[in-house]
Amino acid sequence: MGLLQSPHWPFLIDVYFFLGGLAGGAFVIATVASILNARRHREVVRVGYYVALAALIPCPLILIVDLGVPSRFLNMLMRFNVDSPMSMGAWALLGFSVCAFLAALFTLLEDLGRARDLARVKLVVGVIGAGFGFFLAAYPGVLLGATARPLWIESRSLGALFLAVGASTGAATIALILIAMGRRAADQVAGVRAMTVLALIIQIAALAVFVGSVQSSGSAASTSALRLLTDGRFAAVFWGGAIAVGSVLPLVLGLVALKKRSFGLTALTSLLVLIGGFLVKYVIMAAGQV
After folding, report:
1. Is residue 17 within 8 Å of residue 165, measured between CB atoms?
2. How many CB atoms lie within 10 A of CB 8?
3. pTM of the complete model
4. What band does 1 get if pLDDT is binned at 50, 70 and 90?
5. Does 2 have pLDDT greater than 70?
6. d(CA 152, CA 174)
7. Mean pLDDT, to the nearest integer, of 222-228?
8. Is 238:230 a contact under the CB 8 Å cutoff?
9. Distance between CA atoms of 165 and 19, rounded to whole angstroms?
10. Is 188 exposed, middle or buried (0-12, 13-18, 19+ CB in 10 A)?
11. DSSP per residue, 170-202
12. Which candidate in 7, 195, 199, 223 could, as Cys together with 168 as Cys, close a disulfide (CB 3.0–4.6 Å)?
């Protein structure tokens, strides 16, 4: 696979990567909950599929705005190329969009009483969509690694990092909505709380691998680019925002919430996870384009 030209992406693409990862994470969590026990985790499944569709809706619009001409997005779909991260990303977005729409539609039909039980067909759509969701959440990291930018090209964990951020932010969004629903979904918060903590652990580990792999790459250009994050113009956002406030602090609060089963701590943890998840992607993309 050849390297892409160095990108100059606007802030809207940061939003697209964040929302796409969140949508993929929420969808996968809903599907896993459905596989484990659809009845017991009914609210997690419902909320997860609704969140996935809601987060996904702006994504094609953002891509079209960024490309400038809608036909460019259609051209990427008409030219399927497994060696092109852009082509694979466009197709993954299309496939995931179809599955997210169908899963949310089936859930809505059940909620409105128009269908008694669509669990089986919804599970089939969920399993297929989960594959697309995994790809959609991880592929921006792979896409960055396929560019000629020094900060990204030497990294070995951007795909895993973006996937972990998608899982943590997806779980955090589901948790916030379940808490807002009150007693109706109170007993289902615990599982999502544990998922958030697990995703945060993987996220922090992937961040450590990212920094370590770039630092040990032996490339002067890559280590110079990394210094923009560690002690340069982006250091405050990276260490203070993405690492401390957005990753480590919510992990600590999440572990405490697991023991105390506190909805308040879970809500605070979820808010910090959302802030941190966005900052992780934003600061890595921003520093890589300098």
Report:
1. no
2. 7
3. 0.89
4. very low
5. no
6. 31
7. 90
8. yes
9. 11
10. buried
11. HHHHHHHHHHHTGGGGGGGHHHHHHHHHHHHHH
12. 199
**Nearest to 142, CA basis, from 122, 156, 126, 131:** 156
Which tokens sit at 12?
Answer: 């809207």
Q: Which residue has the tokens 């384009």?
A: 289
Structure tokens at 8: 């100059």
Domains defined for the chain, CATH in brackets: 11-288 (1.20.1630)
> Quick check: 195 and 270 in contact, CB under 8 A?
no
pLDDT reported for residue 81: 60
Position 170 scores a pLDDT of 97
What mean pLDDT is reported for the chain?
A: 87
Which residues have a Cβ under 8 Å from the Cβ of 266 and sit 6 or more positions away?
175, 179, 189, 193, 254, 257
Per-residue pLDDT reduced to its tens digit, 184-207: 778 889 899 999 999 999 999 999
Q: Is the dihedral of CA 233, 239, 245, 250 positive or negative?
A: positive
- % of the chain exceeding 90 in pLDDT: 56
Q: What is the CA radius of gyration of the chain?
A: 19
Residue 69 carries which DSSP code?
S
Q: Confirm if 126 and 103 have CB atoms less than 8 A apart.
A: yes
Q: Which amino acid is at 112?
A: L
Q: Which residue shows structure tokens 């982006």?
A: 234
- What distance in Å separates the CA atoms of residue 144 and residue 12, rounded to the nearest whole number? 16
Q: What mean pLDDT do residues 63-90 have?
A: 63
Show the tokens assigned to 184.
């109706």
